[in-house]
Design a protein that fits this description.
Distance between the termini: 106 Å
Shape: elongated
Structural class: alpha+beta
Bound molecules: adenosine-5'-diphosphate, magnesium ion
Strand content: 15-25%
Largest sheet: 8 strands, mixed
Radius of gyration: 37 Å
Helix content: 25-40%
CATH architecture of the largest domain: 2-Layer Sandwich
CATH class of the largest domain: Alpha Beta
CATH topology of the largest domain: Heat Shock Protein 90
Length: 675
């Protein structure tokens, strides 16, 4: 008996127990070795006249034997001599395949895709097998040899029988374990003898290995109908065995778009990502240079049912040399594009030893950046050229884009703001922010929006009506994230719009210049985003402002009395400049960063206990008949009436904004009192 070379026992123990997170990858490793052996032989046949494969097909065969409790992985590749067995399987961390790849690196042959590189994959077999026997015959040799081992102690090599060239790796599976008391831990090794499991593992990890992986599978067919069958004949079935290729081999992402039709992509998308609708968009590209890779990315037509659940995992599948490395590599897509599905495949990425993750995040970053840009460009194209599809997309995934701006504290606004859509109160349709800004009159300097949960109610809000009456559009925002997104953005820059001339002389000069053949001037316009119910809207003309100031001064006693009546409920009571003369009698607005709507959203959330209160301002419409009543009550020094009116005005303004009066019962009884 030979003992393993190097500090092998320790290393082997480490291999078997620590390198892999997942026992099932042993199959991927053994299939990869078989594929490498076939590639090596094929490459030799191209250059060495002594190697003639004739019409022989290079295939990999998986054979489970439930009786013997063995699983055999066979190939008809290069095979190994006794010395090869000694060198390759007796030395841990020696990779012949890596050496072969380096030696043949100039062989620009796309049929070759050597997978091995660390010289450890083979030993993953011991995660599931108590005994491993490798029977191999090198191409051109007459004698076959067998390498056998029970794991840690060492291995033996002896003469053996094998018909043709190639290798059989025969695993005797470990005994099934009883589950622990908590029902966990019981490894059922016999699952690796089941057709369904093997099929599934091949599909998951080795689907695109470019040699056929074949397995005898049990099928069922209808027996032929007997000649003398009567009318009541029931069809009979029989099962039979058939050799089936269980991997699909050709990676669709390697095909150039000229060789492939959209319906092939659609099929691949639906079967791989378990969707029943075609993708809305397919992005495929090939990158060359320091890092070569193919990417195939899909924008789904509808949100997967679990998109907004905690368990949803974003990410693209990552392949190296046609072998799956990670099913959902999260680093390849930003959170706000978490809905995309797809594949990135690269022969160049440096893998860690378990081949389950990448060694260098730098490489992932480079790929992720490029992928993100491609997705953004695709969405922009959809927005500009297929608005209907884009609106559908936005309905499904828009919330995530807005959340992306908020979660990045606005840093992602350049990337994402132009992909957002909002409902326009004036146009009665969805607009981009750029479209909103482009339609602004010359004297408008901000984007106005109202936030709340119901579009119809927002449209009827007195402040919205008065902003619309000024000729300014208002965006009606009904998603909880909207205002947080806007606050994170602070302002928005609409790029490359026709220049707006506020000043008459400048406009005329520009018109004249254009008449003389000058190009129309363009500009980027940056505007703030303004909630119609918070802060100073700056909508009033100077005269209106002055009038309001004077009214406020003349009614200082009344405003103080109202403030006193409302106590802590409001920060202050003021004369409004945002309400139309024939509009509502009063409105509640807010000062400071927190709006009433944000307060509402936050207090509906999980940390509702410590939500700060928006600083409320009760604004009174001095042109409304109610104002005269208030004035009269104050002049009569009727403080009961002042208290009643103040409370009613406050509560009804809350109602108009879609909020509950703080004490609905008190509100109701006050209304009755008034009647
Ligand atoms: P790696 O594949 O990373 O080189 P492994 O531990 O998986 O490392 O395999 C070690 C070496 O054993 C391979 O480099 C290869 O030379 C040899 N080998 C393993 N399996 C086979 C096989 N089925 N046919 C021929 N050679 C094999
Ligand atoms: Mg290997």
């Amino acid at each position: 008996m030979h003992s393993f070379k190097t500090e092998s026992k320790k290393l082997l123990d480490l291999m078997i127990n620590s390198v892999y997170t997942n026992k099932e990858i042993f199959l991927r490793e053994l299939i990869s070795n078989a594929s490498d052996a076939e590639d090596k032989l094929y490459l030799r046949s191209l250059t060495d006249p002594d190697v003639d494969l004739g019409s022989e097909e290079l295939t990999i065969r998986i054979t489970p034997d439930a009786q013997a409790r063995t699983l055999t992985i066979s190939d008809n590749g290069s095979g190994m001599t006794a010395e090869d067995l000694e060198r390759n399987l007796g030395t841990i961390a020696h990779s012949d395949s890596e050496e072969f790849k380096t030696a043949n690196s100039d062989a620009q042959n796309s049929a070759i895709d050597i997978i091995g590189q660390f010289g450890v994959g083979f030993y993953s077999a011991f995660m599931v097998a108590k005994h491993v026997r490798v029977v191999s015959k090198a191409y051109g040799d007459t004698q076959a040899h067998a390498w056998t081992s029970d794991g840690l102690e060492g291995y033996e090599i002896e003469d053996a029988e094998r018909e043709g060239h190639g290798t059989d790796v025969i695993l005797t599976l470990k005994d099934d374990e009883e589950p622990g008391a908590n029902g966990e831990g019981g490894e059922r090794y016999s699952q690796y003898l089941e057709e369904w499991t093997l099929r599934e593992l091949v599909r998951r990890h080795s689907n695109y290995v470019h040699h056929p992986i074949q397995m005898m599978v049990t099928k069922s067919r209808q027996k032929p109908k007997p000649e003398d069958a009567g009318d009541d004949y029931k069809p009979e079935y029989e099962s039979y065995q058939e050799l089936e290729t269980i991997n699909s081999m050709t990676p669709i992402w390697k095909k150039r778009s000229s060789e492939i039709e959209q319906k092939d992509y659609d099929e691949f998308y639906k079967s791989t990502f378990h969707d029943f609708e075609d993708p809305a968009r397919t992005i495929s590209f090939h990158a060359e240079g320091a890092l070569e890779y193919d990417a195939l990315v899909f924008i789904p037509s509808r949100a997967p049912f679990d998109l907004y659940s905690r368990d949803y995992e974003k990410g693209l599948a990552l392949y190296s040399s046609n072998v799956l490395i990670q099913e959902k590599c999260a680093d390849l897509v930003p959170d706000y594009y978490n809905f995309v599905r797809g594949v990135v495949a690269s022969p160049d990425v440096t893998l860690n030893i378990s081949r389950e993750t990448l060694q260098q995040n730098r490489q992932l970053h480079a790929i992720a950046n490029r992928v993100e840009k491609k997705i953004t460009a695709e969405l922009e194209d959809m927005r500009d050229n297929d608005r209907e599809a884009f609106e559908k997309f936005f309905e499904n995934f828009g919330r995530g884009l807005k959340y992306g701006i908020y979660a990045s504290y606005g840093m992602k606004k350049d990337e994402l703001a132009d992909l957002l859509l909002f409902w326009s109160a004036r146009e009665q349709k969805l607009l981009t922010l750029r479209e909103y800004v482009a339609a602004m009159p010359a004297d408008q300097h901000a984007i106005y929006y109202a936030a709340g949960d119901d579009r119809d109610r927002l449209a009827k809000m007195p402040v919205v009506e008065s902003v619309l009456a000024k000729g300014y559009d208002v965006l009606l925002c009904t998603q909880d994230v909207d205002e947080f997104c806007f606050q994170a953005m602070r302002d928005y820059t609409a790029k490359d719009l026709p220049k707006v001339y506020e000043d008459e002389a400048a406009r005329e000069a520009a018109q004249k210049a254009q008449a003389d053949g000058a190009e129309p001037e363009r500009e980027d316009r940056t505007v703030e985003l303004h909630n119609v119910t918070s802060g100073d809207l700056d909508l009033a003309t100077d005269e209106e402002k002055k009038a309001a100031e004077e009214t406020a001064k003349a009614n200082d006693d009344l405003l103080s009395a109202l403030k006193e009546a409302l106590g802590d409920k409001v920060e202050k009571v003021a004369i409004s400049t945002r309400l139309a003369a024939d509009g509502a009698p009063a409105v509640i607005t807010s000062e400071g960063p927190l709006s009433l709507e944000m307060e509402q959203v936050l207090s509906a959330g999980p940390e509702s206990g410590d939500v700060p209160r928006a600083q409320r301002v009760l604004e009174i419409n001095a042109q409304h008949p109610v104002f005269e009543k208030l004035r009269a009550a104050k002049d009569a020094d009727d403080s009961d009436k002042i208290n009643l009116y103040a409370a009613l005005l406050y509560d009804q303004a809350l109602l108009v904004e879609g909020m509950m009066p703080e004490d609905p019962v008190a509100f109701a009884s006050k209304v009755c009192e008034l009647m």
